[in-house]
Amino acid sequence: MNRWPPHGAPFLHTDTSVAKVMLRVQIASILPLLVHIYYFGWGIAVQWMLAMLTGLVVEYAMLHLRGRPVKPFLLDGSAVITVTGLTFCIPPESPWWLIVIGVSFALIFGKHLYGGLGFNPFNPAMLGYAFLLVSFPAEMTQWTLPSAVSGHTLSIMDSMIKIFTGHLPDSIMDQVTGATPLDHVKTGLTQGISVPETLNNAQTIWNGLAGHGWIQVNLAFMLGGLYLLWTRTIRWQYPVGFLAALGLMAAIFHTIDPDHYAPPLFHLLSGGTMLAAFFIITDPVTASTTPLGRFIYAAGIGVLVYIIRTWGGYPDGIAFAVLLMNIFVPLIDQYTQPRVRGHAR
Questions:
Q1: Which helix (H) or strand (E) holds 206?
Q2: Which of 43, 217, 339, 342 is least buried, going by the fewest C-beta atoms within 10 A?
Q3: What is the pLDDT of residues 165-209, one digit of tens each?
Q4: Secondary structure (DSSP) of 5-44
Q5: With contact defined as beta carbons under 8 Å apart, do 108 and 178 qualify?
Q6: CB contact at 8 A, 221 and 278
Q7: φ and ψ at 283, to 5 degrees?
Q8: Quick one: which of 4, 108, 131, 109 has its CA closest to 58?
Q9: DSSP labels for 93-139?
Q10: Measured distance CA(180)–CA(204) in Å, rounded
Q11: What is the rounded distance in angstroms from the CA atom of residue 194 to the CA atom of residue 185?
Q12: Residues near 247 by beta carbon (within 8 Å), at least 6 away in sequence
């Protein structure tokens, strides 16, 4: 009896699963989480635990309602990645119900109503984040300042009291909360303050480059992203295309008018830039899948982020840029399909 050879297709496979990919992403996010706690306090840890609990409850409920087996889908880690991505976008001392609503919306409307993992056209974490930005703008704009800037550090108990009751003295919260560096620059321009003047404000900016604490967190995300590249969990076209497009746009306009447009490093090391580059836009379900398409998709997000940051109504435009480019993914994939081997020219 003839048998298939023990090598070659269809026997070749990779030792990769959804759970393993999600685990690597979680490992890569540990360093940014620790750095965030060091500079901004324990609020994000409280929010992450609350988000995890919410995610597990919502995931279980939706799987049960859809008649799907709970254990394999609950343990694949996909909900955890959504929770982690969304948690880093939420102000650390925001009220508890904000993260609960955001995670619930992301998992229900961004994942399960489309049929679950693999069928959702939009990035769930960014869908939840955009919903919170539009629905609760006041709660989403008061970020915790680094202790080196505010001169005051909230303990884990202070953070829990603020998150669950909102009753910390206003005198304390006025010291430890404020706008992000991106918002400082945008607000300063509306008041006639040039970008260099804002960036050299010693009370809010570190070394005239970008926000104190934000630089370190972004660098931590970059290191985590390099681990994901090393383990081949993500493709290089995503971070390279996104960062190159964002940096190029910033460089062009900064060269034209440095008083009104921030330098490239400010955009690359502020806000959620590195989080987006290595953890958000690399989502294999909602991103383009062809080699050229990945680069076009990522570059499009970079251009849109710069446009929204510079001329839009929001200081950071990552969520809206990702969701807009999610719409174009089928079109990008259609026109960037590589030629099939053996296809006649």
A1: strand 205-206
A2: 342
A3: 877 665 566 566 777 788 878 888 888 888 888 777 645 555 556
A4: -SSSTTS---S--HHHHHHHHHHHTHHHHHHHHHHH-THH
A5: no
A6: yes
A7: -55, 115
A8: 108
A9: TS-HHHHHHHHHHHHHHHTGGGTSTTT-SS-HHHHHHHHHHHH-TTT
A10: 9
A11: 8
A12: 264, 267, 268, 302
Backbone angles phi, psi at 297, to 5 degrees: -60, -50
Say how far apart CA 209 and CA 211 lie, in whole Å. 7
Q: Answer left, alpha or beta for residue 41, where phi above 0 means left and psi between -120 and 50 means alpha.
A: left
Q: What is the pTM of this model?
A: 0.87
CA-based radius of gyration for the chain? 21
Q: What is the DSSP letter of 301?
A: H
Residue pLDDT, tens place only, 318-331? 999 999 999 999 99
Helical ranges in the chain per DSSP H: 18-28, 30-40, 43-65, 70-74, 78-87, 96-110, 124-135, 147-150, 156-164, 170-176, 181-190, 195-199, 214-230, 237-256, 264-268, 273-275, 291-311, 318-335
Q: Measure the CA–CA gap between 33 and 223, rounded to whole angstroms.
A: 12
Question: Which residues does residue 205 pair with via DSSP β-bridges, in sequence order?
Answer: 211
User: Is 89 strand, coil or helix?
Assistant: coil
CB atoms within 10 A of CB 204: 18
> Residue 171: what are its φ and ψ, rounded to 5°?
-60, -35
Largest CA distance in the chain: 84
Taking the C-alpha atoms of residue 255 and residue 244, their distance in angstroms, rounded to an integer, is 16
Q: Could you tell me which of 295, 293, 264, 254 has the C-alpha nearest to residue 277?
A: 295
- Distance from C-alpha of 258 to C-alpha of 38, rounded to nearest angstrom: 33
